[in-house]
Prior knowledge:
By secondary structure, this protein is of the alpha/beta class. The chain has two domains: 3-212, P-loop containing nucleotide triphosphate hydrolases (Rossmann fold, 3-Layer(aba) Sandwich); 219-300, Alpha-Beta Plaits, CATH 3.30.70. 33% of the residues lie in helices and 27% in strands. The chain has eleven helices and 14 strands. The longest helix is centred in the middle third of the chain and has 15 residues, at 164-178. It is elongated, with a radius of gyration of 22 Å. It binds adenosine-5'-triphosphate (ATP). Adenosine-5'-triphosphate is lined by residues 12-13, 15, 17, 35, 37-43, 157.
Amino acid sequence: MGITVSNISKSYKGVKALQDISFEVKPNELFGLIGPDGAGKTTLFRILTTLLIADKGQASVAGFDVLKDFKDIRKHVGYMPGRFSLYQDLTVEENLEFFATIFGTTIEENYDLIKDIYVQIEPFKDRRAGKLSGGMKQKLALSCALIHKPKVLFLDEPTTGVDPVSRKEFWDMLKRLQQKNITILVSTPYMDEAALCDRIALIQDGQILQIDTPEAIVKQYPKTIYNVSANNMYQLINSLKDYQYQHSVYPFGEFVHYTDVRNDFKINDLKMYLEAEKLLNIKIEKTQATIEDSFMELAKYPNRTCKLSKT
Ligand SMILES: Nc1ncnc2c1ncn2[C@@H]1O[C@H](COP(=O)(O)OP(=O)(O)OP(=O)(O)O)[C@@H](O)[C@H]1O
């Protein structure tokens, strides 16, 4: 009871939002769509939840075709859209009751499934949804998306605008839901969340750059990455970008991630160059690739999967 997407394309007046997308989500899998704003994630969610019709291609969800069986899909999927979708003027409890009613069920009937999540907002059950914090809104939206016991759950950027503690709690909840036989497709622009999925698709400009487990994607990263730091971050980035042997340069927290085009790269050569650029306190150390590094590399060369030899 997973998801199958075959050659789906969708354009809006000349904007190619999705370009020949194909992938499968296995039953019970926690699958992540990882990509920046405008990559096409919401368009894909809307097609899979039958709210939008693709220009080309086929897709099925929980064994149902998105066109022919749209009514079945609506019964069997839960969808938490990116932007807050609840009724701001209804209370927490009224929102949940409303969603239960439209799916012909009651809060009591499926309480077990949402219990873990709902207990955290139950003390505020008489508060209007519009007056909840970001983390609480997100828990209520998830409870509403689950109240009819869906087979497949679609979560579009569920942690955007949510504090780090609530983000962590949210992902713990997803892991628990997965154990209750729910297939989950979740999108996020946060690369660190990608590592929490079973498999991910990296998506940009409506195209899939790579699909694999997070571990495999990182493993295929083709270069050796160096953490570089110095007294002046802005000048460091500019100097590294001007260096004739640079392959990639971008800020990564307190460091700059640097890769070099040469196979015989020596840390000392780069250090000498940066010293000549008048930078101080220069530190250069090898580091491990992350999903973000893989994404940046693939986004730079979208038609190439990471197959260069390691330098
Ligand atoms: N109704 C629309 N009319 C015209 N262009 C649209 C429409 N909806 C989306 N787009 C464009 O299609 C592309 C994909 O948008 P989509 O919302 O699917 O991406 P996304 O990855 O979900 O990003 P975001 O998080 O910003 O919503 C973007 O270039 C967007 O501007």
